[in-house]
Fold these 3 entries.
Entry 1:
Amino acid sequence: MTCADFRSLLTPWVDGELSPRETAEIELHLNACGGCRHTASRERRFVDWFKRSASREPTPYALRTRLLALARGKHEAVPIPRFAFFSSLRPALGTVGTGAAILASVFALWAFNLQRLNRVEWCQAFIDDHQEGLVAGVSLQHSTSSPKQLAAWFTRKLNQAIAVPEVSDARLLGGRQCVLKGHRVGLAVYEMENQQISLFLTSQQQLRPPGWTLSSGRYHTASENGFSLAAWEGAGILQVLVADLPVDQLLKVADRFRQAPN
Amino acid sequence: MASAERSRAGFEALLEHQLDSLYQSGLRLTRNPEEAEDLLHDTVLRALAAYDSYEPGTNFRAWMFTIMMNTFISKYRKRMREPTVSIEQAPEPQAEGSVDAQVFDRLLSDQVEDALRAVPEAFRTAVVLVDLEGLSYREAAQALDCPPGTVMSRLARGRAMLKHALHEVAIESHYDVR
C-alpha cells in the first residue's frame, strides 16, 4: 500500500468502515510509515474533537410537546373549535370498523358548524381534510384508477356531474365524498412521485367562499404548515388541489390537472 | 382498528427518543429555527403515515432520518431562507475605556456550529448524519438516496472544510493539531 492509497482510505478508516482485510493492510502501512501515522492520528483526533465539541441541545419544550401530540395522532391545539371534533374522533376510528368509521366521520363533519366561512377557514377545511387523509389513512370509498369510473361514482353518490381529470404522471387511487361546510364534495386522490394529492371537486355554488371570484384561468392559492392549496374553476366545477408541496410547485401540478382531458 | 391504535402508541414512544437528534439535525440542515420546526412537523406527519412500512425491531433512528432527509430534499432545500446571523456578525458590546481589552468570549460549541453552518449543504449533510448522528455510511447513503462512496467523499470534503475553519479554535481548546 502506498501513502497515496492510504490517504484515499483515510476517511473510511477513521470511521471503521473498511473491511478487516483493508484495515489490516493499513495497520501494516502505518507501522512502517511515520508520515501517514502522523496524518492518521491528526485526522482521528480532529474528528473526535469535532464530535465532542458540537452542541447538544434539547428540543424546545413547546415544540417537543406539539410533535409528540402529532405522533399520537392529535392535531396541534388551535383556537378553531372543529379541531376538538377531529381529536375526539380519532379513537372512534380506531375501534370501529371501516364502514362505520367513515359514516361516523361524515356525521361528525356534518355536525361541524362553521358559521363564518372566511377565506382562511375555507382553505383550512380543505387542507385539514387532505391532512387527515394522510395521517389517519381514511380509506377510499371507491378505489379505481379510471377517472371515468370515479366520475360515474360521483354522479351517483353526490348527484353532481363532475368530470375527473386524467393526468399522465399522476396515478388515480380512487375517491370518496367529503362533507365541507355541510355540503357534499367529491374527493379524488392521486399519487404522484410518492406523494398523495387531493383534488376536491364540486359543482355546488354555495361552497365558494364569499368574496372570491374564480375567473377562469386564475388560481387562488394558500399554504399552511407546508401544505399548499390551489383553487380554480373550470366548466362550473370548483376544483381545489391540496398537496404537501410548496405553492410554486403545486401550481405546476395544477396546470397539468386543469389542462388534462376528462 | 385497535391494532392501529397500538402501533401508533409505539410510534410515539420510539419518536420520543429520537426527537432531540432529529430536531438538532433539522436545525443544522435548514439553518433556521422556523424552517426546522416545519421540517420536523412534516417529517413526523410523513413518518406516521408511513409507519406501517417500518419493520419493528429494525433501526428506527435510521428510518426516521431517511424520512427527514427525504422531506428536506423534496421540500425545504429549495426554499431555505438565508442563514440566521451568526454570533460573529453580532455587534460587539461597547465598553468605556480601553479598546484593547475587548475579548470576545464565545462558546466553543457556537464556533463549531458557525463553521458547520458555512459548509455547503451537500457536505454539511454528510457530516451531520455520520459524525454528529452516528449513522453508518450505508445508513447515511440510504437516507440521502446516494451510493455509500458519495457519502464518503462528501464527508471527506466536509471534514476538510471544518478542519480549515476550526484549526485555530481546536488549538485554543487545547487540542494540538500540529
Entry 2:
Amino acid sequence: MIDSFVYLCAIPELYWERERETQQSGLRIAHLTAEALGVERRINKGINLEIERPRYTLLCQRLETEVIQAGRWKSFKNWQEFSSLITADKFPLVPIDRNYIDFIRFTVSESPLARLGTSFFPPNEVSSHGKTFWNICTQHGVQNVSALKIRAQFFQCAAQNRCGVIELQYPFAFIDSPKADIASQLEQVRNQLFEADNAREEILATSLTLSEQDLHEVDTFQSDYKQRQVQTLSHTILQAIKNGSGANLSNRSNDVIAEVLHRFVYVQPSQSIMPAELRIIYADGSEGLPFPIRCRHQRTQSEVNWLSQHSPLKAVLMSMRHLDLDREVDLAWFRNREVSKSRALAETDEYCYQTTRELLSDALKEGPLLLHMYHTGFEPAVVGFYRAVVEALQKHNKLGVLPYYYRDKKPFELGSWWL
Amino acid sequence: MPMYSETNNYIAVKTGVEEIVQLIDSLKPHVAPVDTIQSTDLDKIETVFDLALPSSYRSFLLKYGTLSYQSVRIIGIGGASEFTSLASVLIGLRIVRPNCPSDLVPIEDLGSGWLAGLRCSTSSNENPTTSVVRLYLDALITDNSFTPIAPDFADYLLGRLREIQGRAKGWQQLKKRVAEFNKKHEYDHAKGGKLPRNHVWRPYRYCIQDVVFGTVVVRHERDSSALQVDVFLPVDVANYEPDAAAQALTLFVLSEAYKCGGTMEIEFTNNVEGGHIPASIKRLAFRHGVQLSQTRRLLPLESRQLYAALTDFSTEIRAVLEQLQKDRRLSIERACYAIHSGVWSQQEAETIILASRYPDSVLGGDALPEQRHIYLQDLQGACAAILGGILDRRLAMKEHQDELGVTYNLEDDVRHIRITFDPSTYAKWYVSSEDLPIPWIAGESGGENRIVPANTSVTVLVRARDAARLKVYMHRDLLLAQQLRLAHITACDESPIFILVPADFYELGSRVEEFINSAKSHHIGILVCPESMVTLTENAAKRLNSSRVIRDD
C-alpha cells in the first residue's frame, strides 16, 4: 500500500517577503505563496473553479519543488537545535508519519479558517494555525499520537523563530508503519457519527411520513398533462426519499421541476419544519449537491402583498434562449455561454448555484428584492438556481422569487411564490 | 406452466417440459414429434455409455428425438446427420478426447470448437437434475474447462429457441428504431448532429475493428425510473468465446442503467425474445451465480449483483470492495461504473483498490485540490496507477508491419499477459505465454526492445515521481529492486527486474548516467515512460474530477 509521510520544513520569515525575493536568495516562494493564497480565496468563494483549482495544484507543486530544489533543509535530533539551524540559514526539517494525513481526512472541514489540509503556512499564520490544530487534536482525543504531537511542537517552534512552514508529501515511502494506527480510532468515531446520523435519519423518516397527501397542492398549471407530470415527479421524489436514493431530475420540464421542488420545500403552516435533503441525480450519471426540503413554512398572503409592493427585477434564467424576451426583462441571470459548457450536469448545477448565491448576496445588500424569473428549460440551471434561492431565503426575509413559465403562443404562466 | 423447484436453488421459476413442448410444437413443420423412439432405446444408450440421462432430456428425446431449427442443432436420436446422433457423438468424443469426463452428454455443437453438454451422474438417481455446461474442445480439458450456462436441459433449450426466434423480430425492430433515430436526430459521426435525450430510444452498436459484435436499443423510462431494452442482439464471433458479445452488451446496458440515474431495474420489451430476459443474459447470470427471479425484468438488486459479477474482480479485490460498501464508503456498482464508463481501466482500478489507503476517495474523486494533502495523496495514487496502466497497455499491444515497413496495431489484437500486483512494494509482475518485448529501456542502444522469453516473469517497480523526487529517492528504489531480485532468483531462472519512471528521469542531467550504470551493475533496468509527471498529473486530475461527479449508490 502506498504509505505517504510528510516532511515539515520551517522557512525563515525573510524568504516569505516579496520585496526581498531575488534570484540570489535562492528561494522564490513569496510570489508563489501570494498567488496561491489569492487562488484559495477565490476557490472558497466559488469563483471560476474550473480554472482556479488546476492553477492551485500547479502553484502548490511549484512551491514544494522550490523548497526541495533549494536543498537547504536539515533534519535535527532535538528541539533545541531548531533555532541554531535557523541562525545558520538552514531550514529545519522533520518527518511525520501517515497518521497526520489520516487525521486530516477526518477533520478537514471542521475549521475552514484554519486551512487544515493545506501544505503551506506563511509566518503570520503559523501560531494561530498551530493552536487551532492542537485544539482540534485535543477535541478528538488524539493528542498522544506522535505525528500530531510533533507537528504541533514544530509549529510552536516555527512561530517562536518567526518562520513559515511548508509541508512536503512523499508517497512510496516503504518505511515502517507507525505503531499506533490513528485511522482505526478515527474510523470508530466516524462510525459513531454515522450511527448517530442513521438514527437521526430514521427518526426523521418515521416522523416525516411523507405522502402524497402531505404535499400541498399545485394549482399553478392549467394543463392536465402538466398536472400529471407533477404527480409523477412527486412520486419519484417520494420514492427516492424513502429509499435514500437520488431523484433523477433530468428529462423533466423545467416548470414541473420548479413546482415540484416547491412542494417539497414548503410545508403547511400547521406542520413542523423538519429540514432534510434530497439527493439530485442527472441523466449523465452525475450527482449534484443535495437540495434542501421541508425547511420553509408557506408564506401568508400579507407577506406576498408586502413584497409585491416593490418594483420587480425581471430576469430571464439564461441568455440566448428566448430572444424575444430581451425587451421585457432587465437582465439574463446566467450567460448561456457559461452554463452550456461541455461538462457534467452536476458541475453545471454547481456553477449555477454558486453564481446565484453571489448575485443574491450582492443584490440583497441593497434592500428587499422581488425577482420575476422567466424560466428556460435547462434542468441543472433550474435546480442550481432554486437551491441558492432556498439557502438565501433561510437567511433573508426580504427576498421573493416569482417564476414565469413559458407557454407556446400563450401568455407566460405564473408559478408559486418562493418567499 | 412453470414449475417451482425445491431442489434447484439457482432459479425460483423452473422451466417445465410443457413449456418446451408448446414452443417446439409452434415450430412445425420445421420440427415434428417422432414415434419410433422407445424408452428402451434410451435405456440401452444409458447402459452402453454408463450414463443417467436427466428427465427433461429423456422426455425431449422420446418426443422429438433430435431438433434442427435454424442454427440450433440439438444432438439426440434419429435425424439425418450423424453429427446430431447422440451415440455417434459420444463415441467420437471418447475417441478424439479421451480425457473428456465420461459423464458428459453433448447436447449441441456450438461451432468453432465449443460444445454444450450435460454432466450426468453415473449413479442410478431416479430423477437426476443436471446443469448444462459449455467447454472448448480444442484446448486441454481440465476441471476448470466447464462453464455452467443453464440449470437444466429444458431451460437451455427454451433459451436457445427463444433466442433464435427473437432474432428476426429483433432485426426488424432495430431497423425501425434506427430509421426513427436518423430521421429525428440526423446524427452523423463525421458531421455530428443532435444527440438524443436519455428518455428516447437510442440504438448502439458494439464493434471491434470492423466487426459488429452486437446491437442494443435502450431508453430511460421516466415514470418507473427503469431502463427499457427494446433490442438486444449479440452475435457470436469466431475466435471469441460464446456469449462474449452478450457480456459486452450486458455491461453496456447495466452501465446505462446506472448512468441514467434510475433504480437499475432493467425491463425487456416484447420485442426482445418475446418479452423475456434474453437467454444469453440468463446464461451469464447462471454462470456467475446470480439468481434471477423474474422472467422479463432484472430487479435492481439482481442488476447490481450481475454488474459486479461481470466486472470480474478477483476475490481479494471483491473483499476490499465489499468492506468499503459495508462501511458506506463506496458502492461496488460505483467501482464497476468507474471502469466501464472508461474513467479507469480494470487494472488501474484494481491497483488503486489494493494500493491506496483510501481507494474510495480516489475512485470517488472526493478530495478537492484546495485540500492539498488529501488531494495530493489521491493524485499520487492515481498517477502511479496510470503510469502502470500505460506499461500494461504497451506490453499487451502487438505491433505489426505492413509491406512498406510502417508499424501499426489492431484493436483487440493483444497479448494475453497475466499481471499480478504487490501493494506493499508497488511492484507488478508480468507473465506472457508469448515472447514479450520490453520497451523504453534507458541506456539500451539500437532503439530495439529487449525480448523476454515466453513464460518468464518480469518484475516492474512503478515509481511515478518528478525529477526533484527521483533525485532524492532513486537510490532507495534501486535498493528495493535489488532486494526483490535477490528474493526471486531461482537456480535456473533469473527474472528481469525494472524500475518504471516517467520521462522526468531525463531531467536529472548528469545523474541519469549514474543511475543507469548503478542499476545495470545490479542487473536492474530502468524503463522511462514517454509521459512526464505533468501529463500524468493532468490526466489524473481529469479522472479525479470525472469521478467526483458520478452518482454514489
Entry 3:
Amino acid sequence: MKDYNAPRHATPPRSAVVSFPVAGRDVSDNDTMRLTLFWKLLGAVALTLLLVVLWLGMATYQAQQQHRVTAAARQAAELCRMLVATLSSTTEASELAARFAGWSPGGGTEARCYDREGRLVAATDAAAAATHFYPGEIQRLVQGAESITYVDQDATSGRGAHHGLPVPSGGQLVWLVDVRVAVERGAISSRWLGLAALAGLLGVAACGWALARQLQPLVTLVAGATALARGDNASIPSTDRRDEFGELASALREFQQIRQSRTIEYEDKTGALEAVLENMLEGVLAVSHDERVLLANEASGRMLGFVAATALGKPLVEIARSRPLQAILRKTAADQQPHRDEFDSPGEPRRVLSVRSAPLSQRAASGVMIVIHDVTELRRLENLRKEFVANVSHELKTPLASIKAYAETLRLGALEDPEFRLGFVERIEEQAERLHALISDLLLLARVEAGREVFDFVELALTPLVQECLSDFEPIAESKQVRLTCNAESPALQVYVDEEGLRTILNNLVDNALKYTPAHGRVCISWRGEEGYAILEVEDTGIGISARDQQRIFERFYRADKARSRELGGTGLGLAIVKHLALALGGDVSLTSQEGAGSTFRVRLPLARSLHTHREAEFA
Amino acid sequence: MSLHLQRDMERMHREILSMSSIVEEMIDKATLALCERNDALAAEVIDADNQVDQREVTIEEDCLKLLALHQPVAVDLRRVATVLKINNDLERIADLAVNIAQRAKQINVFAEFPIPDDVPKMAQLATRMVRSVLDAFVHLDSRAARNVIRTDSEVDQLNVTIIEHLTARMQQSPHLVSPALHCFSAVRHIERIGDHATNIGEDVIYLVEGDIVRHQHSADSGPAQAHGQS
C-alpha cells in the first residue's frame, strides 16, 4: 500500500512566507499508471517513428522487388534478342513465330516481337496480342535506345516489367522485341505504397495534432502565469488532466488564491494603519535621508501648512519652509539621536508646535521621523496663569507695602504727632479694606469658577433690584455729574436667579460705567424679555473700549488702559466676576462698544419659569 | 538635462528655499517684536542676520559656478537667473527685518506709546505677501505671483493711513514724538518688504513666462501705486 503521507515531490512547510506547495491534487492512487508527459511524448515519437520505418520498409521492399523484376526482364530480353538476332530482316514472320512459340521463358514471362512500325509479329502468349508500344517508346527503340518500364499490376494488361530492345542486324534495325516479366506474388504495388505513405502522413499528422493538444494547456498556463506575475487577477484555466500540466495548473491556482488572500490581508492592515494616521491629532512626518517626504499624515499638513495628500516624494524644504523644522531634521540626521524642540508654525494661523524627532532606523543615512503636537492652547493657558499669578502678587503687594510704610512711619515717631497720626491710621484702614475687597473678590471668583458657590435660585422681579442699585449709586453719580437712569420695556419681568449674584453683576457693571464716563455723561439701565431670557443692559456714554481690548476685557486683571484704571481703583476683577456669575446663573454677558462714544454691556438671564407655566396654565 | 546639472540645480533650489525659511522666520519674529513689544524676539532677529548674509554669498557663488560649468539654456538659464535675483531680494528683506527689530526695541522703551491698530494688519499683509510669492516660486504659479503684486497697493495704502495717524498723534502728544518716529520708520520698512515681495513676484513671472514685467504696472493699476526699485 502506498504511503500517501509521503508526497511524491518535496513540499515546503506552510509558513508566513509565500511558497507554493505542490499539492491540491488527488493522484496519489495511480502513480505508476499516470500518463505523464514523458509517456505521451514517448508514445507520439515512437508512433511517428514506427510509421516512418514502416513506410521506408515498404518502399525499400518495393524498390528491391522492382529491381529484381527489371533485372529479370533485362535478362529475358537479352535472351530474346539473341534469339531473334540471328534472323535477318527478311525472315518470314511464320518462322519467327515458330521460333517464338518454341521458346518458353517460363515464370510468367512473355516475349513479343514487333516490326519497325510497331506491329506485332510474334508472341509467346497469343492472348496478349493486342498490346502496343507507346509511341514514345517506339521512337526511342527505333533510334536504338533501350526501353524499360516498370508497370504496376493492373496499370495495363501487362504485368510487371517491360523490357524493349531493338534488334539490329548488320547495323540496321530489323526487329523490336518486348519482354514482359510478371511481378511476383505478394508484391507491393506503388499504389499500396502511396496509400501507405498517405496513411503514414496521416498518422504522423494525427500524432502531431494529439501532441499539440497535449501541450496546448502550456500556452494557456503560460498566459495565466504571466498575467499572475503582472498582478492581473486572471483565472488559471482548470484542467482535470493528471499529468504535469494538471499539477502546474493546480499549483498556480493555489498560488493565486494565496496571493489574493495575502493582498486582502495586507490591504486591510494598511487601511487600518492609514485610518489611524489620518485621524490622529498629532502630526506624523517621515523624511528620507535626502530630505524628501516619505510619509505625511493630514494633521502634519494642517500644522505646517501643506497638503498632505500631494506631499509624497517632494523635498520637505519645498512644502514646509520652516527653519526650526529643518534644523531639527538636520541635527537628528547628523547625530542619529532623538531631539525635541518647540517653535511657531510657519504661516497662518500661528500655532505653537512641540516637535519630537527620531532617526528612522539604526542604519546610517536613513531617514528621520517627526511627531508634532499643537501646544498653542497649552502655552496660552500657561501664559494666562503666569500673568494671573504675577498680577495677584502685584495687587496684593501694593496695599501691603502701603500698610507697612504707614505702620513703620507711625512706629518711628508719627504716633507722637497728633496732626498726622489719625490720618495715617485711616490710610492703613483704607488699604486693609482694599486688600480685603481684593481677596474677597478673588475667593468669590474662584468659588464661582469651580462651581463651589452655592446659589439660591428664586424668582425675582428685576424692577425693585434695579431701583435699589440706582439709589445706591446715586450719590456717586451726582458727585461725578453723570446722569443715572433706568428704562424698563417690561417692568413686570421676572428672572430666575440668585439674588446676591444678580446684585453683584449690576453693581460691578454700574460701578464700571460710572468710573469710565466723564462728567455730563449718562448711564442707563434697561431690560426687556426675549426668547425665554431677560436682556439686561447697562449703557454708558463713556470712553469706550477698543476692538482689541474688547476681546480680552473679561479676563482677570485685564485693564484696557492700565494707568487710568489703577488710578480709579478697583480690583481689576469686576468684569471677570460678572462673566462667571452670568454663566453660573445660566446666562451670558456680551459687549458692544465704540472708542470715544460709549459702551453697552448686555447680560442675558433666564426668565422665571413660573411665568411660562402660568401662561401655559392659562391656555390649558 | 545632464545628471550633474540636475543635481546642482536641485541643490541650488534647496539652498534658496532654506534661506527663504530663515528670512520668513525673521519677518515673523520682527513683526511680532514690534506689535507685541517683545525685546527677546527682536534680539533673535538681529542675531540671525549674519547667517543670512553668509548664505547669500554662498548661493550667489554656487549660481555663478553653475552657469560657468554647465552653461544652461532656456528654462534652466532663467531658473538660475531668477534664483540670483530672489537671493538678492531675500537678503534685503532680511536686512529690513533687522531694521524693524531695532526700531521695535527703541519703541519698547516708551511703554506708553500705543502701536496703531493698522500696524499689525500691515505687517501681516506684508508677511503674507512674502510667503505667497515664495509659494508661487515653488509651484511655478504666475497667477499667484500676479496676485501678490496686486496686493502691494493695499500695503502702500495702509502705509499712508498709518503715517497720517502717527502724524496726528505726534501733534497731540509731543512727548511721544520719539517712539512715533521709530514707528514711522518701522512702518516704512514694512512697506519696503512689500515692494521686495513684488520684485520676487515679477521674477517668478519671468521664470514661468519668460516675460520681464517690471515697470509695466501703470498699465493695470492706478498711479497711486508706489513701486520700489529692486
